[in-house]
Design a protein that fits this description.
mainly alpha
């Protein structure tokens, strides 16, 4: 990340990353997690964590609240910590988001990961093809919640992280869906 943020995504080669890591370029490419340069920057979204939160939520709650709460909880986990650790986590996430916003190739790959996240959430909601209307509602609600989260992430970058990310996500969900979208114990 340091190389990409210091020099820009397009200026950094896989050879540069390999050299900084003390390995050969072939080692980077052979490592299954990094089949392409974009994979060096993409962070695994906490899809499993989000899906687990959604699955554990009460099916009696509205879809948007179930999904939104899981997104807020994931943001809290990604930006929580103590003192210097929290600041480093937030700075890393901000730098990563700036790169995503500024680099077309990364935005395209990020869209793929958003689709995978959407599918994981819909599966966690337990909405399958057996009831096409329920599956459609789950997909629509999930897409809308992810769009609200994207808006919050973009604002967080513009704000240089001065506002708590979980609070921005809650505000975006409330702006999109109304006051009932976020559990009452959440801060707006």
């Amino acid at each position: 990340m340091r190389l990409f943020t210091d020099h820009g995504y397009d200026a950094v080669t896989v050879a540069d990353v390999a050299k900084a890591a003390g390995v050969s370029s072939m080692t980077v490419y052979r490592y299954r997690r990094f089949p392409a340069k974009e994979d060096l920057v993409l962070i695994d979204q906490p899809a499993q964590l989000i899906a687990e939160h959604v699955a554990a939520s009460s099916a009696t709650q509205p879809l948007v609240r179930r999904i939104g709460s899981a997104l807020i909880d994931a943001a809290t986990a990604s930006t929580s910590g103590n003192g210097d650790e929290q600041a480093a986590d937030e700075r890393f996430l901000l730098d990563w988001l700036r790169l995503m916003v500024a680099t077309p190739a990364l935005r395209v790959r990020h869209l793929d990961s958003q689709y995978a996240l959407q599918q994981a959430i819909v599966e966690a909601l337990g909405k399958d093809a057996a009831d096409p209307d329920a599956a459609f509602r789950a997909q629509a609600a999930t897409s809308a919640c992810l769009a609200a989260m994207h808006t919050a992430l973009t604002r967080w970058v513009e704000d240089d992280g001065r506002t708590r990310l979980p609070d921005l996500i809650a505000r975006a969900l409330t702006a999109s869906f109304g006051d009932d979208a976020v559990a009452t114990h959440r801060k707006d």
